[in-house]
TrEMBL record:
Required cofactor(s): Zn(2+)
GO MF, one example: zinc ion binding
Domain Secretion system C-terminal sorting: 833-904
Source species of the chain: Bizionia saleffrena
Name the record gives this protein: T9SS type A sorting domain-containing protein
């Protein structure tokens, strides 16, 4: 039976929660205050804390997790009632004792403070911030309420919402604590939500972080891409009817796990809301049967267009009383033409993310996004405001996450049209059917020759396809006059790329009577099964060719060639095809990534502090990539296959490189990055102010390293427990790791770094019985986050120390260790690696026949500098004579082994 609440009951519950949740309270007033205080006093020496450091503590948030049976209490360090900004430790209570403590307190705070008395008022602090960030004239900014150095000011003419201000201590670079006003201003441009600390003695800006996380997905400008898909009409999302809140709603969307229009067909889905997460469906807000809205608005999200880019409330598609959002999708037009589909898909993905992660613990009590918290825990009035086709930017997306009780905002932009289009349609025959992405010939100067190879025209050329044969050792390259001219005449010639000029190949096809040419790229150096690279043909001919030519990638072209060689009759059309902008709202990986920022922000350090992921070593981009990968994961995926991020919006193919330093893959040949790469200060260029930008200055690169580790962890869980396509209620390894990561986010402290993030995951597993401690250690150690790894200061990105060792077998925390180094081997027991240090040759001797292995040598920057395949039956050798002196990681992988060991080159 669905719950119904009286208005008076709801008001009382919300009032009580507001009293205990929105403003910080003394630790002693918390149910577990005495327990926590006694534990800290007993263990303060382990964290270099004095009695003074823990004598004035405040609870910023507290809630209970059902799965782990943990009471999470987030404790803010304070001095004389004034909190230290972001000094929020996570304390986990289980079975009436402290189960886990993640420290974020500072040492000896009494000696670091400058004053307890502000000489700059709270309103003057707002004036300083407005001037610093050019927010314009304040207008009527007046105090609405005030209590204990905490104020709320009206938004005036500078903010989209009321301005909260409170007194805190801000840590300086030198480690001092300066009295400051902590305030947040939602800029009217919609691009910034400034969280600022203003010096309470002179009005200087001490610290700022922007709650709007802009992800710059399009900054690398990749150019390949894949084709469009056709509409189908079936969907279940792997849930039984018993778990569905049926209101008859239906949506024509790219349903998960489909990632984008490149990855699968648009589908009409019915009643997708989950009964636990959205018990009244997706269009309810009052907690009573019956939808309040017939547009893309409800309890979890309000999706609307913002074509004007003015951050005002835009139009939302209307499904009528039947909630029928079955709008037609035609990708062969500018995105404005399918705006209703765009906004509907944005509504769907936001709701799906809400429902999926609700099942794993991102619920109302922990700070999720809902207009009405049906459980009476957490704060209401914070559904996601999601804006499609936002006109204020291009090639980007962002998500702003204020504290619990304030709505986050998601902005999805359009993306510049790529260099490819769909000039080829396979009408019948073979396995490649429909529109196919292709590159048209160059019309500029390339390779020293003016390009005048003829591309497609508005007049379609339709004919059967024919594979060329020039009678040479490489007959399908067409470098000599064709010997099968009669078979090619009147056909579209299919030619393999080779060493001779494009013009020579096309001329031979035209001379044989071909009516068009499809050039297939066969440069596939690593023999990747789904290799995708597009070639742009160029060359000078006089007179110009009379037949159109296009080029396709290897993956598509080899399907045509194989089918033709097997006797298939394939008919195709070559015609001019306009290339349109892409719509980020249809790229589910981007929408899920952005929503993921909201999850990690709300769960780290508690939902009432949105600044806990503002430190240098924070991993927010990594969690967001991982969230996107998990909801688009399919049963046909493999651990080694590379997953690129945002391939659709960046006009890449489904197997495109994505926009990270490497694809997400467990294969070190594809992704060999380790923790040491956080220290990579390679100069990438300069910013708009002329300052050098280093590799590790880019938050997406740091996040990518964490995402890599989480993706490796995911596949270890799948390897052990299998894969379950039911994202909501499944029991596979993917479901287990989804639970683990959500629990880990709750356990970690404010200002988390890699080591603390790893430890939180280990603690989360321990809370559920500790069955996978060894598995977790194995994964992180393999990427350099082993037992002796150090994150240094989480506020620095140049002091990390990697380590590739796992705990000893005698470690009492290791339970049922059957997965360490895959089959129980350790470098010490299974191998002899000598000499070490070595000058020229390292010998690897094994006590057991381990079969075929790959031996990689990885430098301290995470690069594979030497790779060798060997049959490790008794002994193998590795010649390192050409390498520079220093420390390397020797990685040996095979069907029966996965070992890392340090070696030193003299």
């Amino acid at each position: 039976m669905k719950k119904k609440y009286t208005l008076s009951f709801l008001f009382l519950a919300l009032f009580l929660f507001a009293q205990n949740g929105f403003s910080q309270t003394e630790l002693s007033k918390n149910e577990y205050g005495t327990l926590i205080q006694n534990w800290l006093e007993k263990n303060k020496g382990d964290y270099n804390l004095t009695q003074n450091d823990i004598s004035d503590l405040q609870v910023s948030n507290a809630f209970f997790s059902k799965k782990t049976k943990i009471n999470h209490v987030y404790v803010n360090q304070a001095f004389q009632g004034i909190p230290v900004f972001n000094a929020i430790s996570s304390v986990s209570i289980k079975d009436k004792s402290v189960f886990y403590y993640a420290n974020a307190f500072q040492s000896n705070i009494a000696a670091k403070i400058n004053t307890m008395t502000p000489t700059v008022s709270a309103q003057e602090a707002i004036v300083s911030a407005a001037a610093e960030y050019n927010l314009g004239a304040l207008g009527n900014v007046n105090a609405i309420n005030a209590s204990n150095n905490q104020y709320t000011f009206s938004k005036g003419d500078i903010s989209g919402s009321d301005i909260p201000v409170k007194l805190v201590y801000q840590t300086t670079i030198e480690g001092d604590l300066k009295l400051a006003w902590d305030l947040s201003i939602e800029a009217l441009n919609g691009q910034n939500w400034y969280s600022v600390r203003v010096d309470a003695t002179n009005g200087d800006i001490l610290n700022m972080n922007d709650w709007v996380i802009s992800c710059n997905f399009g900054e690398f400008g990749h150019t390949d891409h894949t084709g469009h898909s056709k509409t189908s009409n079936a969907f279940s999302l792997f849930k039984t009817e018993a778990s569905i809140a049926a209101d008859g709603s239906q949506y024509n969307v790219f349903a998960l796990p489909t990632e984008s229009p490149s990855h699968g067909a648009i589908q009409l889905i019915t009643d997708p809301a989950d009964l636990d997460a959205s018990p009244y469906g997706w269009h309810d807000t009052d907690g009573v049967d019956g939808s309040e809205y017939t547009i893309t608005r409800g309890n979890n999200v309000w999706a609307q267009e913002d074509v004007n880019g003015n951050n005002a409330f835009g139009a939302s598609p209307d499904g009528g009383l039947a909630l029928d959002f079955n709008f037609p999708f035609n990708p062969n037009q500018e995105p404005l033409g399918y705006q209703d589909v765009s906004t509907t898909n944005l509504f769907y993905i936001n709701n799906a993310m809400h429902d999926i992660w609700f099942k794993y613990g991102f619920d109302e009590g922990s700070g999720n996004f809902q207009q009405n918290n049906y459980s009476n825990t957490g704060f209401d009035n914070d559904l996601v405001i999601a804006q499609s086709q936002d006109g204020s930017g291009l090639n980007n997306a962002n998500f702003a996450t204020p504290a619990d009780g304030q709505s986050p905002r998601m902005q999805m932009y359009l993306w510049a049209a790529g260099t490819l289009s769909t000039p080829l349609t396979i009408n019948s025959g073979g396995t490649l059917i429909g529109d196919v992405l292709a590159a048209i010939p160059s019309t500029g100067n390339s390779g020293g020759a003016t390009g005048n190879i003829t591309g497609p025209s508005a007049t379609p050329v339709t004919a059967d396809l024919a594979l060329v044969n020039d009678g040479s050792a490489a007959p399908t390259e067409g470098c000599a006059p064709l010997t099968n001219a009669s078979a090619v005449a009147g056909k579209i010639a299919v030619i393999f790329r080779g060493d001779c000029p494009f013009t020579q190949k096309i001329q031979n096809a035209q001379d044989a009577g071909a009516v068009g040419v499809i050039m297939v790229n066969h440069n596939n150096p690593d023999n990747e099964p789904n290799y995708q690279e597009y070639i742009v043909m160029f060359g000078s001919t006089n007179p110009p060719f009379t037949i159109p030519s296009i080029s396709v990638n290897y993956n598509d072209g080899i399907q045509l060639i194989n089918a033709l060689q097997n006797g298939a009759v394939i008919n195709g059309t070559i015609v001019e095809s306009p290339n349109y902008q892409k719509d980020g709202s249809l790229d589910n990986s981007i929408v899920a990534h952005e929503y993921g920022h909201g999850i990690s922000t709300r769960l780290t350090g508690g939902s009432f502090n949105s600044g806990c992921l503002s430190n240098s070593e924070q991993m927010g981009e990594g969690w967001s990539d991982w969230f996107a990968l998990m909801v688009t994961m399919k049963s046909t995926d493999t651990p080694e296959m590379g997953r690129g991020i945002a391939t659709y919006s960046n006009s890449q193919g489904v197997n495109g490189p994505g926009i990270r330093p490497a694809k997400y893959s467990t294969d070190l040949g594809i992704n060999n990055y380790t923790y040491e790469a956080t220290n990579d200060d390679t100069v990438l260029g300069t910013d708009g102010n002329g300052n050098q930008v280093h590799w590790n200055d880019v938050v997406h690169n740091i996040g990518f390293l964490w995402g890599t580790m989480l993706w490796d962890l995911t596949w270890k869980y799948v390897e052990k427990y299998g894969f379950d396509p039911d994202m909501y209620n499944g029991t596979g390894g993917n479901n287990k790791v989804m639970q683990l990561v959500i629990d880990g986010l709750k356990l970690q402290p404010c200002g988390v770094g890699f080591v603390q993030g790893r430890d939180a995951l280990l603690a989360a597993d321990s809370a559920m019985g500790g069955e996978d401690q060894c598995l977790i250690w194995d994964v992180f150690a393999a990427r350099g986050l082993g037992v002796n790894a150090s994150q240094g200061s989480a506020d620095s990105i140049n002091d990390q120390i990697s380590d590739f060792t796992t705990p000893p077998d005698t470690d009492p925390t290791l339970v049922n260790c059957t997965t360490l180094s895959v089959d129980g081997f350790t470098a010490e027991s299974a191998f002899s690696i000598y000499p070490n240090p070595a000058d020229n040759v390292v010998y690897i001797k094994t006590k057991k026949n381990l079969g075929d292995v790959t031996i990689n040598l990885i430098d301290i920057n995470g690069r594979v500098v030497l790779s060798k395949k060997a049959a490790l039956i008794n002994e193998a050798e590795l010649n390192i004579s050409t390498l520079q002196s220093g420390m390397y990681i020797l990685n040996i992988t095979g069907n029966n082994v996965n070992i890392n060991n340090k070696i030193i080159k003299n």
